[in-house]
Write a structure and sequence with these properties.
By secondary structure, this protein is an alpha/beta fold. It is about 50% helix and about 10% strand. The chain has 16 helices and eight strands. The strands form two sheets. The protein has a six-stranded mixed sheet. The protein starts with a helix and ends in an 8-residue tail after the last helix.
């Protein structure tokens, strides 16, 4: 066993409660941080790396401690599992269920979900006797794209290019991040579909249901932004609208697969057809990073849906204007 692991015992529920913290925006945006503050941020980053290297059984114990802490603090009736039918949220759901909690599951259905994931989510919740709330947006996807723009490259890039196109103020430092994408500044791109199709409907449901504590299957390994959020806020933190609980933040992709083998879980069928992540069928985020992007995979999985995405929904023209190679229809 790792020597560092022996030295760092699993904290008790009380210790987790006492250690909850969140750097506020004033601290985070302060350019003149003290040496102590800088050292704390460095330590948090190193701690995250160390915990991501723990054995799976150790991570499971940590995850359950965080789940129990949130339930003890906020009450199980105020909690719900954010469930997409994806492998990460399935592991999270299994963890919660294994502790004897049958809390509601909420599926934010953008109307762009893979049919296999919707079907899996429905069957999983029925099998485990938990209530599934299928939440839909008030607007249609193409209405958002037509008004605001299409999701391409990355959320940050699409957002910055939209601001440039609309002649809004952009931080010069952020301009450097999109320097290589400036040739697409006149293409109608945006990251707003995620807000209107997913986040806004879920917020409305939370307000109506009174459930403000969201258990999410977020993993730090998936992006630098998620690593930063943990360093800044930890596993449990408050936003203006909700309390976020990320019990499996330390899990790696290997942990997810090993957990499934350990407990004999079969994920949604798309994960056995070349997909590593679920999400919207026509999401263009990350399309420039790999030849095997979402559009290529969709063509293989569902040619009829792919044709609709390219022709009816306009992604064929957008991909052409963004120099993204996609299979012929």
């Amino acid at each position: 066993m790792n020597k560092e692991l022996i030295l760092e015992r699993i904290p008790s529920s009380r210790e987790i409660e006492d250690s909850q913290f969140s750097f506020n925006d004033k601290f985070w945006n302060n350019k003149n941080k003290t040496s102590e503050q800088k050292a704390l941020l460095t330590f948090r980053g190193q701690l995250l790396n160390r915990r991501m290297n723990y054995p799976l059984d150790h991570k499971i114990l940590l995850a359950k401690r965080r789940i129990q802490h949130a339930i003890n603090t906020y009450g199980v009736n105020n909690c719900y599992v954010s469930f997409s039918g994806g492998k990460d949220s399935t592991v999270l759901s299994h963890l919660v269920l294994s502790m004897g909690y049958k809390m509601d599951h909420a599926f934010s259905n953008t109307r762009l979900e893979y049919p296999e994931c919707v079907d899996f989510a429905t069957k999983w919740c029925k099998k485990n006797n938990v209530k599934l709330h299928m939440i839909y947006p008030e607007v249609l996807p193409w209405e958002v794209w037509k008004k605001h723009g299409y999701p391409m490259f990355s959320k940050e890039t699409a957002d910055l290019l939209e601001r440039i196109r609309l002649k809004q103020k952009v931080n010069p430092k952020k301009m450097k991040k999109v320097r290589s994408f400036l040739k697409y500044k006149n293409v109608k791109l945006s990251s707003k579909c995620c807000y209107f199709l997913k986040k806004k409907p879920l917020k409305k449901w939370q307000k109506e249901s009174g459930k403000s504590v969201a258990f999410m299957g977020i993993r730090a390994e998936e992006s630098q932004m998620r690593r930063v959020v943990w360093v800044r806020k930890g596993c449990v933190y408050k936003t203006k609208e909700q309390i976020v609980v990320n019990p499996i933040i330390f899990f790696t992709e290997k942990d997810i697969q090993d957990y499934a083998k350990k407990y004999k879980i079969r994920f949604a069928d798309i994960y056995y057809k070349g997909f590593k992540r679920n999400g919207c069928v026509c999401c263009g985020f990350g399309c420039h990073l790999s030849g095997e992007n979402n559009f290529v995979k969709l063509k293989k999985l569902n040619p009829a849906l792919y044709k609709n995405v390219m022709e009816t929904w306009g992604f064929g023209n957008i991909c052409k204007r963004c120099d993204v190679k996609v299979p012929p229809i």
